[in-house]
């Protein structure tokens, strides 16, 4: 199934940055010691339904590391969210029968390697107010060490960018960003078209991740992308807000790596 293949590619992608180890019956812990404050690099992946006891142990583990957040990710919704804020991400695949060569693009937009300084400035303008300038610079540096970035130039300026990662016949495109100065000038579709055609030349299937509550997913759908999977993400950055009952003694033996 395509869903299984995209999950494998995503797992390989995360393995570029994080080391994973079994934590408990339903939880696996990711850890990125070079970027400790990036949530998805330091999340707990869950399979099945983790118990309150497991979430409590995960919380204690985060506190012992000095990490002031807790994030759980999985491929099915939690029956109990424990006070964590829920978000979802769609996995959208471009099927082989879609024809990216027919997509409208801007002839005056050129695609190539982005200038590092311009790329950093664009990321700071967009992500700096959201996550802080220090984190934005460190995160970009970490990503550029491992991934291939692509830039779209218009009027001599870096108008948009994205990065790609390929594994097992699939290419994931992510981090699509268009400078507000160049919106509505087909910069995003030109980048998408270039990435889709490149993936086809390499014999790969292109896919991306999208927010189900945001409008880009509608653009992707019109271009032929199909939703094949969902990732459920539960995050808390104020640990005092978690809804956990009284601590109980473990009723089973944790897997290796679960003890604090």
Please characterize this protein's 3D structure.
Strand 8 and strand 9 form a beta hairpin. The chain has helices at about 1-15, 50-65, 115-130, 135-145, 185-200, 215-220; strands spanning about 20, 25-30, 45, 70-75, 85-95, 110, 150-155, 155-165, 170-180, 205-210, 225-235. Helix 3 (about 115-130) crosses helix 4 (about 135-145). It has six helices and eleven strands. The model is unreliable at about 250-260 (pLDDT under 50).
Offer a quick outline of the entry.
With 260 residues, the chain is α+β, with helices and mostly antiparallel strands.
Number of strands: 11
Instruction: Output mean pLDDT.
Output: 92
Radius of gyration: 20 Å
Characterize the main sheet: 11 strands, mixed
Distance between the terminal alpha carbons, to the nearest Å?
38 Å
**Individual helix count:** 6
Beta-strand portion reads 25-35%
Identify the overall geometry: globular
Query: Which strand order does the major sheet show?
Result: 1-2-3-4-11-5-10-9-8-7-6
What structural category characterises the helix and strand content? Answer: alpha+beta
Low-confidence stretches: 248-260
What layout of secondary structure does this protein have?
Blueprint: H1 2-15, E1 19-22, E2 27-31, E3 44-46, H2 52-65, E4 70-74, E5 85-93, E6 110-112, H3 116-131, H4 133-146, E7 148-154, E8 157-167, E9 170-178, H5 187-201, E10 205-210, H6 216-222, E11 226-236
Parallel strand pairs: 3-4, 9-10
Antiparallel strand pairs: 1-2, 2-3, 4-11, 5-10, 5-11, 6-7, 7-8, 8-9
